[in-house]
Amino acid sequence: MRILQDPISGGSAREFLRRSFSVPIDWFIRNRGPVKLVLHVGIFLSAYLGAYLVRFEFFIPVEYQSLIKVTIPLVLSSKAIAFAVFRLYRGWWRYVSLRDVLPIVAGCTLGTVLFAAADFLFLVHLSIPRSIYAIDWGLSLLLVLAARFVIRFGRETLGQRRLRQDADRRVLVVGAGAAGQMLVREIRENPSLGMIGVGFVDDDRAKIGTRIDGVPVLGNHVDIPAVCEEYGVDEIIIAIPSASPSRLRHLLGHCKDVKAEARILPGVGDLIDGKVSIRALRNVDLEDLLGRDPVALDADLLHRHITGRTVMVTGAAGSIGSELCRQIARLSPGRLVLFEIAESPLFAFEMEMREKFPGLDLVPVIGDVRDRARVEEAMRMYQPAIVYHAAAYKHVPMMEIHPVEAVKTNVLGTRIVAEAAASCGVERFVLVSTDKAVRPTNVMGATKRVAELVIHNMNGEGRTTVFVAVRFGNVLGSVGSVVPIFRRQLEATGKLTVTHPEASRYFMLIPEAAGLILQAGAMGEGGEVFVLDMGEPVKILDLAKNLIHLSGKELGVDAEIVYTGLRPGEKLHEELIVEGEDVSRTTHPKVLKLIGSEQMPVLWKRRLEELIVVAINGDRGSVVEKLDSLVKGYTPAYEFHGVPAPTDPVPSLPRISPPSKSVH
Q1: Stretch (H or E) spanning 398
Q2: 169-208 tens-digit pLDDT
Q3: Pairing mode, if any, of strands 538-539 and 504-505?
Q4: Parallel, antiparallel or unpaired: strands 591-596 and 581-585
Q5: Pairwise CA distance, residues 172 & 218, whole Å
Q6: Does the active-site annotation cover 436?
Q7: d(CA 592, CA 586)
Q8: Residue 581 clears pLDDT 70, i.e. is over it
Q9: In whole angstroms, how large is the CA radius of gyration of the chain?
Q10: CA 271: distance to chain centroid?
Q11: Taking the alpha carbons of 17, 19, 20, 24 in that order, is the dihedral positive or negative?
Q12: In terms of Cα–Cα distance, which of 299, 262, 263 is closest to 280?
């Protein structure tokens, strides 16, 4: 139960006490070294006198009273020196723990030995009972430890006890291991955090019902909703740094139906200096709910493929391209060429890479994949052995408005880079593709499918370059993806826009996608399209609801979901396999191999040239028509690409009549 504080009397009392004791407290803090020495001397004196009282049953004979007076300077100096040797005057008593006991035992023992030695050397004519040494040692140890633990106890239970405010958050810690205990201790010792630790939950049955560091273990992870309801929990902290992504997702599943906000202690490798602290906590991201266990890559294959060799990445400063570069850099390539059109992102990414990989031969190159001369110049100059082609236009609604630019970058740009790679003797060319290339309903997907067909058609034909493509779905956290958009909407208006309640997409984390691209690229023999195992598709509506909950908001109160309808070119569900492709397993469980059995029409190359020509001429209508004739399964939205309605922000364009017959 929370204790409310009287804002007048409580506040004025605290102010009076603060003013009264602030000066002496400040003096003690500034001079705590000498103060500790004086306190220890008092303890030593009390222990020595107490030893005689115990030895003689609280009635000290007169002859021993004079002996005490003579030996007091000797015993005090001996113990003071011994404690100085073990540096026991340093440190904060408020943080004393069991680890401090052994040095204190050693200090007391050394002090007793020094005292006995001094007695033997300098007080030959006096006789101190041998039992005094033992009793004095025991009392000294007991009093020194008691002083420290009393100060800690007083600080934690009396000095730090204050009247709680309504704003304080009641915290439930998931995980009663070392990390959870450290967090609870910090919460208790630091009232300024505004947190109250109500208890632990842990799956270890032996801990349930016990108290750890004074805090009860209230149940296991399944009991999280009931515990939150019973104890009025405001915040849940998951303090299991070693938890795998699947384990973390399981734990968060128990938290999704409670009102309490959840936060996570990062993994051991992400903790700053490995220290567990409230400051290290982070909010739960959607990535945590979708994250899978780390994918094991074939390290030997990747090292043979990349280590010591020149690698070129186009679109190097983009979301996928940059993560590809980071993972390639960890494999120690001989040289890494960053080919990118955007100057500022390339500059920032180059700085990041030089800081993280100071020994890497890094070459930033500004260039456009649509500029054949520039691409060929870079290829000839740096002679890459492997090219990862990640440069592309990827935003579906934007490319519906600008189909000409989509073709020039995604189709012409891919062909230019691929032809330059073949002419310069590049060993392996890997195209980064998308699931939107499967039976596309939009310009972006259609152009990426044409790009796949371009490199498929180039494979062989007397060329030594191996051409492969890697196809996957949406990448969480990439620029322009749904998650950053939802976050901005939630912060700005609280209204999250969802196209359709049943719309679903395949999702993958950026590092996972980049790692599997490297893996698939190294496995290809030529002509394959590799598909990454994306798990189960996720409803966009579920993503929106989860984000609202994880942000500590309540749907219908603090946030709402607005349905906007599918945009031009959008699908309700995405697919990963094109009709006519044979699916087979590879040596990697997360990578499937597709062998295209689709026969290229005799006129395909001519139609490809026609597509590129009309794109260069800027004929939007003809671009869409030519894409329709090239891509099997493409269903363009002709009305959208025709004359827009008066309120349509898209500039007026000539209406395009659908062709009477499409050739596939």
Answers
A1: helix 396-401
A2: 889 999 998 888 888 888 877 777 888 889 999 988 889 9
A3: antiparallel
A4: antiparallel
A5: 9
A6: yes
A7: 6
A8: no
A9: 36
A10: 10
A11: positive
A12: 263
